[in-house]
Amino acid sequence: MTTQRDIARTAGVSVAVVSAVLNGTTHTRMSEATRARVLQAMENLDYQPNQAARSLRLNRTGMIALILHKLDNPVYADLLRGVYGAASEHGGTVLLGDAETMRSSSQFVTRLLSQGTVDGILIRDDQLYDDDVMAELRSHPKPILSLDHDQHHPWVGIDDRRAGEIATRFLLNLRHRRIAFIGGAPGHAFQQRYLGYQHEMQQAGLEPAPHLATGFGEQAGADGLRQALQLPAAPTALVVNNIMSAVGVLAAAHDLGIAVPDQLSVVGIHDVALMQHLRPAVTAVRMPMYELGQAGVHALYDLMAGNPHTSGTITTPEPELIIRDSATTLTNT
Amino acid sequence: MTTQRDIARTAGVSVAVVSAVLNGTTHTRMSEATRARVLQAMENLDYQPNQAARSLRLNRTGMIALILHKLDNPVYADLLRGVYGAASEHGGTVLLGDAETMRSSSQFVTRLLSQGTVDGILIRDDQLYDDDVMAELRSHPKPILSLDHDQHHPWVGIDDRRAGEIATRFLLNLRHRRIAFIGGAPGHAFQQRYLGYQHEMQQAGLEPAPHLATGFGEQAGADGLRQALQLPAAPTALVVNNIMSAVGVLAAAHDLGIAVPDQLSVVGIHDVALMQHLRPAVTAVRMPMYELGQAGVHALYDLMAGNPHTSGTITTPEPELIIRDSATTLTNT
DNA sequence: GTTAGGTGACGTATCGTTAATTCACCGTAG
DNA sequence: CTACGGTGAATTAACGATACGTCACCTAAC
To answer: What is the pTM of this model?
Structure first.
């Protein structure tokens, strides 16, 4: 491993100059010739600054943690790209953690922070909010930013309410009247989506169905469909809160002999590549997850720089309806 | 931030003793009473060792990198769990990287290694092998372990050949004779799976079809199906090399009016939760990805400890056929 | 009474970087 | 001729943890 000392020796200068060249420090001055010599030496010896030493000296590592609820949820794919991209703009590295892992391996996040492994944390975990992990987090001085509407931390979020509105309005425009809203859990971002649904229903002079909060994933979709069918007035259309639940809805509908979209229209919130490869291809509201990742990182760096932060929702780009084949006009047969 | 100095002061000992208590060093001895006092002080002051300082002193960070080809491929979900679990057994942290990101953000991996950010690398990237990134990697002293059959690095792998055999044999037992093999790219692990297919076909006295290497993902499945239909003898069954391609096969079959499994049986290699929620649910060969992750980490730690490594395939558990609804007996109608 | 050996602990150099302080030199103004 | 300011550097003290070398003290053997 080549160190600044090696560079200094071969360039015939002191380590102070090497460090100054590296960091563009104005305090320690040098001539152009000297700077060039140092740069040349760095090139020749393939110098790479030692991160551990920098971290120790500067008391920051240039690493941020991203904690996600379930890493393998495909809606995170774009988020990840956004986060990685923005972090590398800032010269930072991303440490990715799954919230499950976090809970099991004792105080994963806490250790990251207090051991100085990361400079800040980006967190998106819809199920963590009541945990004592959160309490631990709050007791630490390093910034934490939530990628969800959050009452405990600064946050940036996507426009969940708008997504609910868009999905619902689309179905209303297709002349559906009995529209149910399934999936997710109460008290989360999902609540916002339900509010959007509720709002649109009321605007249309209709009674909103209760939120069938069956949870997450494929199974939640199947459960949601079954519960929706028990509703006093069986729905002709469904807003599905969680995109992977849409897969479950399709499967359950198939198993129950319900044709989608002819007998049941389905619109999902969040769009992933998979949706266009299902049959029927699923109409979904695309959320700006890439932008969320970017904005989250920038906001976190802001926070780390000590700037005050105003939490808020990303409004551009807007959630966008991607029309495919799982929803169609209600025919009065 | 609490340091060893603080502990030493409050416990009335020197930092040397604090460090010794922490590390169980035998060199520096102490009485039980002293040790207890130090531990108590650590507890009281909520001491957490500073990672940066340790890394600098010990010249290792306790962090390993895991580089995957496409993070959002669901087959990696179990792998991740295996890796995270095993790493935390070793007291290590995992830095996750996507190979795409790596290529774009200049020399991501190289920097990780030479800046001493990680102690070793676990890599699974089917498309990286001819890249000059690999050349860069090899020029570094820190251990790299591939999670794929690899001619350049030590590796651990799963039994891809066996998976090909199992899928093919299952279809043969269902009386299929014209079986095609689609998806993937030549020269990779996928080659092994094809060899397994080939072997079983020959055992059964049949002519193997050529490997229709249409690549990865859903589109590859659709392309593979179309190419398979062009074959001199149109197949009645398909072995699909990549599980996400199975989704594409199903969609393309639907679009072409081919009923699965009645007109076409499909078996995928690799199993993910999604497969049981598709209609028809996809019969697939489950690969021990969790175990691959574990074994990879253990092997990497072995390597980092300076032990010689013998590359090899994980044979227990064996690839396991999960029978669902996408493959059925060939009826001679 | 001296010393060898064991016990329990301390002092400090070191890892590679950064940044504050110091310093030598030179040209020029007074 | 001296003082002074500017230029271009070098020295060095941290940052926190680790481990080597040292040392004081006590007991017991000779």
So the answer is: 0.90
- Class of domain B160-288 as given by CATH: alpha beta
Mean pLDDT along residues B108-128: 78
On the question of a cis peptide bond just before residue B319, with omega within 30 degrees of 0, the verdict is: no
Instruction: Write out chain A residues lying below 8 Å of B1, CB-based.
Output: 114, 116
Same fold, B4-49 and B60-157+290-314: no
A115 chain-B contacts, CB cut-off 8 A: 48-51
* CB-CB contact of B268 with B216 (8 Å): no
Angle in degrees, CA A24, A118, A66, rounded to 5: 115
Using 50, 70 and 90 to split pLDDT, how confident is the model at B1?
confident
Structure tokens at A142: 């390093």
Name the class of domain B60-157+290-314: alpha beta
CATH architecture of A160-287: 3-Layer(aba) Sandwich (3.40)
Please report the pLDDT score of residue A332 as a whole number: 64
Find the residue in A nearest to B245 (Cα). A277
Q: Do B279 and A84 touch (CB under 8 A)?
A: no
Interatomic separation, CA of residue A137 and C1' of nucleotide C25, rounded (Å): 55
Chain B, residues 208-267, CB within 8 A of chain A, namely: 218, 247-248, 250-251, 254-255
Q: How far apart are CA B117 and CA A74, in angstroms?
A: 28
Specify which residue's alpha carbon is closest to the C1' of nucleotide C12: B16
Q: Is B80 on the interface with A (CB under 8 A)?
A: yes
What is the residue whose two structure tokens read 């426009």? A159
CA closest to C1' of D9 belongs to A30
Q: Do A247 and B278 touch (CB under 8 A)?
A: yes
- Beta-bridge mates of residue A179: A237
Instruction: Read off the pLDDT band of B106 (50, 70, 90).
Output: very low
% of chain B surpassing 70 pLDDT: 92
**What are the tens digits of pLDDT across the range A13-59?**
999 999 999 998 888 888 999 999 999 999 999 999 999 999 999 99
- CATH 1.10.3720.10 is held by the domain B4-49: no
End-to-end CA distance of chain B: 77
> Which bases along strand C come within 7 Å of a protein CB atom?
7-12, 14-21
Structure tokens at B233: 């003898």
Q: Which helix (H) or strand (E) holds B242?
A: none
| Percent of the residues in chain A that have a pLDDT greater than 90, as a whole number | 68
What is the residue whose two structure tokens read 């104005």? Answer: A26
CATH for the A59-158+290-314 domain, from 3.40.50.2300, 3.40.640.10, 2.30.110.70, 3.20.20.70: 3.40.50.2300
- Please state which of the ranges B25-39, B88-102, B246-260 shows the lowest mean pLDDT: B88-102
Mutate one of A6, A78, A96, A247 to test the B interface: name it (highest B CB count within 10 A). A96
pLDDT above 90 (res B109): no
Alpha helix (H) ranges present in chain A? 4-11, 15-23, 32-45, 51-58, 76-89, 99-104, 108-114, 132-138, 160-173, 189-203, 217-230, 243-256, 289-304
